[in-house]
Amino acid sequence: MKIAIAQLNYHIGNFDGNLDKMLRATAEAKANGADIVVFGELSTCGYPPRDFLEFRDFIRHANNTIDQLKAAADGIAIVVGSPTINPLLEGKDLHNSAYFLYNNEILHVQHKTLLPTYDVFDEYRYFEPAKEHKTVMFKGKRIALTICEDLWNLGNENPLYTVCPMDIMMLDEPELMINVSASPFDYDHAADRLEVLRANVKKYKIPLFYSNVVGAQTEIIFDGGSVVFSPDGSVYDEMPYFVEGISYYDFNDVVKGGRNNEQTKEKIPLIHDAIILGLKDYFGKLGLKKAILGLSGGIDSAITAVMATRALGKENVRGVLMPSEYSTSHSVEDAKALAENLGIRYDIIPIKRPYNSFLKILDDVLEDKPFDVTEENIQARCRAIILMAIANKHGNVLLNTTNKSEFSVGYGTLYGDLAGGLSVLGDVYKTEIYQLANYINKDELVIPQNTISKAPSAELKHGQKDSDSLPEYHLLDPILYMYIEHRLGPKEIIEMGYDETLVRRVLKLVNTSEFKRHQTAPVLRVSPKAFGVGRRVPIVGKYLS
Amino acid sequence: MKIAIAQLNYHIGNFDGNLDKMLRATAEAKANGADIVVFGELSTCGYPPRDFLEFRDFIRHANNTIDQLKAAADGIAIVVGSPTINPLLEGKDLHNSAYFLYNNEILHVQHKTLLPTYDVFDEYRYFEPAKEHKTVMFKGKRIALTICEDLWNLGNENPLYTVCPMDIMMLDEPELMINVSASPFDYDHAADRLEVLRANVKKYKIPLFYSNVVGAQTEIIFDGGSVVFSPDGSVYDEMPYFVEGISYYDFNDVVKGGRNNEQTKEKIPLIHDAIILGLKDYFGKLGLKKAILGLSGGIDSAITAVMATRALGKENVRGVLMPSEYSTSHSVEDAKALAENLGIRYDIIPIKRPYNSFLKILDDVLEDKPFDVTEENIQARCRAIILMAIANKHGNVLLNTTNKSEFSVGYGTLYGDLAGGLSVLGDVYKTEIYQLANYINKDELVIPQNTISKAPSAELKHGQKDSDSLPEYHLLDPILYMYIEHRLGPKEIIEMGYDETLVRRVLKLVNTSEFKRHQTAPVLRVSPKAFGVGRRVPIVGKYLS
Asked: Is B349 on the interface with A (CB under 8 A)?
């Protein structure tokens, strides 16, 4: 038996586009002699469809896609994920299901049992869990068909669920497992995922064919890395990260094992590739082409420009240098050097005139109070107006260049440097930003060395440094990481040896800047805990604040 | 037996404040001879605590509050909601629980069974449902203790759950039900809630003591309206909406029934009062006092100013009139008249200087292309800079004045008129805005008549009217309502008799403006489906777009 895993990039709600991809992959797999082609979780409608699932019209479109795939399941079996309607009155209205289509018929439908409802996932919002677990017989082999999280109650120290659907399916003595997934990227997840899947294979001792989706859906990036395990728990093959592809596996070869084609997993290169895919799909799926961003001469805007250029092409990226009286001369020079290295268009537009005109008309109402964050914010907001004006006139999307350290502590101006349609680096701490810069520069000097080596500054007043307002990043970032990624409280972090005053100050900054993060762009998610849909914190709370 | 219902306004994460409120209420109830005092759902930590629940430190604080309440449960029983740790390794780490405290002991802990995971609710994200359902014996009476949603699988056409915890508890033959709730307001919900609760009373034929919380937590407004049902299904008493209070009920009197003290429920007055509470608590709970807003002379900013004045006091509201060359003379006159009616401070700051300075410095990069939305947006963004500058210098919070019709179709400028810390009217359609204006003006002329009667205009170019870009609101709003509140698709809405071209145009506007709503302030929720946390829609989707 020959099994094709089709690792494809779907688009939420783009039923025609998704169907077309799957039909082409089916034809190719059939031409290559595959007996089964396996797509991804909810691949008819794209994952995660969120509240679109509440529209019957949306479900009708998904059902129609299944009908058309059924018509194509002729001489080849198709395994595909799609929402289905729960026939019972009680419980949620939908199931998250996988179809096994063959000979123009629905041979089997298996609903998902374990519904992830944490971090970026909201599946219990929409779906009723499966109560029945049946295997399917195909060409003399019994197959256990599961959906993503269904395999995730093994290999964890703290299991989230009280049932394990494979335990039930094993009563039928299946010979192989097929799993259709939509498992998102974070820099730890590819390795974690292999361990969880391996725990299943080691427990059930049958091969696993795991088909993941690839591509970004707004902030969530799916990395692919579909994987086939031999029954001894070794990785037979892992498909590439961040690209589409179809791979073919002979069942007997997989059972025999010994291929061990596992990819290396290095954090910074993975982040780099994930962000480029995130950018590419944000623009591509929205039908957009052109980006714009402010180039300050600093490292965050430099990396954002590099990423955008690599994702969209240099002809589609435009930088704007907007010096003020507080800008250092090197900031303009560094930004120009970067733009020239990248070959992107840049303009220099000083903000002096509008800045002074605001000071003039606000003279009375600001009441001669001393220069403070008010005047700093006016500068940042003048820059946002300039960028958005060019974007509006020429059809660019403004990229936000804020990093995760700044986002965490609210070091940024709402409607100023926090503006933008997509946050490119909002899930990358400043200390990781430097690693990313060195990785980008590893073969040739793309980012000017001075941009990397100078002390970070917002340049909103004379001689300003980030370290005037914030702890040094090598002190700040580990505390943020413990609080945000690991959800440790002040007591636990202080017990790890961090300075109590600093810890309390940092946690307070995080919690009192929630109102800013509420109004910022979606953040490309590369860590296990990104700002946005996966982290839901009250604005009006009085906790560590 | 005398039962006190304490309908209180808790604050998320403010453990000391919440404990203090409950201790004072307990003392008062005890002094008044109550046998039991009943608080709300998760009232130790405030509802909804969201991802704060993932911090063990947060749970420790909640447990500490329970310890202190237990110490106060001396001669009076206390019923109080709090998160508890699930002792089992499998499943979610927490339960959403209700404690029955008496004689300085924990007499009973009942976990919640039905975990709302829809609209603004995410309970399955955190909590494991109850597997055990026990009643508690107190002073010779057996009590069935449930938590909010536990009673909500009755009285619905399409039940969301497959179990009904009261069915199990009834095996113990309890004599009364107590329910601790955090049930939020929308203009339909008070009536819906009574019907669901009545269905329980009618089925189980025992009295119900239902204690709801009151107060706003960022965007979600809890209306209180705690209610006591006699066993015949009649409302014995309903506590007031939107205010704190303690009411006392004699068990035998309630069983006898016949009091029938049910409140009237009128949509527009309820919305009015809800928004005022929402504003009051947003400022109060964040420790803020002063609001600022732009006054355009239009109806949205007028109502926002009225609401803010009623919530915060006229001394804490500041209006800014920012005319441009496109402003009509009546817009300034109407705005001045409103400010004078309200007695609030206002300033007039024309935007001409900064607007012209932007046009000047952008002259090259805008490439002589014709006046379009770019120049309109520059005006709106100049106004945001002015408002935010005053806010930053003097400690005001900018109020957003956008209505739900505009939000829906993306009729507004990001970082311009879509700016602000809180959206006051973002859940009120334009057609409801007019009803609200008339309600406000019912006793005296607060909002100038011209503001109500003139055609809506953004005044960003000469002679502009909303109806140049949008359908008339009386055509637009019903389509939005069917799509947003009722989740009907284009087919269903067109079948209701709406023009197909118009329906498709409106739905496309809604779906392609998701990126704007992603970056706006929290919206005070008054309808069954508000923008924000209760409506989760992909930005990068291709559905009806």
From this structure: yes
Distance between CA atoms of residues B133 and B524, nearest Å? 36
Mean pLDDT of B413-420: 98
Q: Which tens digit of pLDDT belongs to each residue from B46-102?
A: 999 999 999 999 999 999 999 999 999 999 999 999 999 999 999 999 999 999 999
SS3 A26: helix
Torsion of CA B309, B310, B311, B317, to 10 degrees: 10
Q: Is A528 exposed, middle or buried (0-12, 13-18, 19+ CB in 10 A)?
A: middle
How confident is the model over B384-394, as a mean pLDDT? 98
CA–CA separation, A211 and B177 (whole Å): 50
B52:A384 CB<8 A: no
- What's the pTM? 0.97
Q: What is the DSSP string of A196-237?
A: HHHHHHHHH-S-EEEE--EEEETTEEEEB--EEE-TTS-EEE
Instruction: Of A509, A510, A464, give the one whose Cα is nearest residue A371.
Output: A464
Pick from A191, A192, A184: nearest CA to A218: A184
Q: Which residues of A391-412 are buried (b: 16+ CB within 10 A; e: fewer)?
A: bbbeebbbbbbbbbbbbbbbbb
Q: Which helix (H) or strand (E) holds A249?
A: strand A245-250
Asked if B377 reaches chain A (Cβ–Cβ under 8 Å), the answer is: yes
H helices, E strands: number in chain B = 19, 19
Question: Tens digits of per-residue pLDDT, B18-48?
Answer: 999 999 999 999 999 999 999 999 999 999 9
Which of B13, B360, B367 minimises the CB distance to A542?
Answer: B13
Nearest CB to B388 within list A12, A415, A539: A415
Q: Output b/e per residue, A14-45; b: 16+ Cβ within 10 A.
A: bbeebbebbbebbeebbeeebbbbbbbbbbbb
Per-residue pLDDT, A111: 98
Q: Is B315 labeled as catalytic in the residue annotation?
A: no
Give yes or no for B374 touching A (CB within 8 A).
yes
| 3-state DSSP assignment of residue A287 | coil
> Would you state the pLDDT for residue A154?
87
Q: Yes or no: say if B306 and B425 are a contact pair by the CB < 8 Å rule.
A: no
For residue B267, pLDDT over 90 is answered with yes
Query: Is B58 close to A489, i.e. CB distance below 8 A?
Result: yes
Helix (H), strand (E), coil (C) string for A315-337? HHEEEEECCCCCCCHHHHHHHHH
What is the secondary structure of B411-476 as a DSSP string?
-S-TTTTT--SEESSTTS-HHHHHHHHHHHTSSS--S-HHHHHSPP---SSTT--HHHHS--HHHH
Q: Nearest 10 degrees: CA dihedral of B138, B144, B149, B155?
A: -140
DSSP state of A181: -
Neighboring chain A residues of B281 at a CB cutoff of 8 Å: 540
Nearest-by-Cβ selection for B56 from A367, A421, A489: A489
Residue B231 to residue B255: CA distance in whole angstroms: 6
Marked catalytic residue, from A30, A70, A148, A404: A148
- A158, pLDDT greater than 90: no
Q: Please return the burial class of B162, using the count of CB atoms within 10 Å of its CB with bins 0-12, 13-18 and 19+.
A: middle
Q: Which residues of B touch A286 (CB under 8 A)?
A: 539-540
Q: Are A459 and A331 in contact (CB under 8 A)?
A: yes
Report the alpha-carbon angle B63-B68-B73, nearest 5: 120
- Classified as helix, coil or strand, A105 is strand
Clarify whether B41 is annotated catalytic: yes
Alpha-carbon span B504 to B509, nearest angstrom: 9
Q: Which of B19, B542, B545 to mutate to test the interface with A (most CBs of A within 10 A)?
A: B542
A58, A377, A389: residue with CB nearest B388: A377
Tokens coding A110:
């298996």
Q: Out of A30, A41, A128, A375, which one is annotated catalytic?
A: A41
Task: Over range A375-383, report the average pLDDT.
Answer: 98
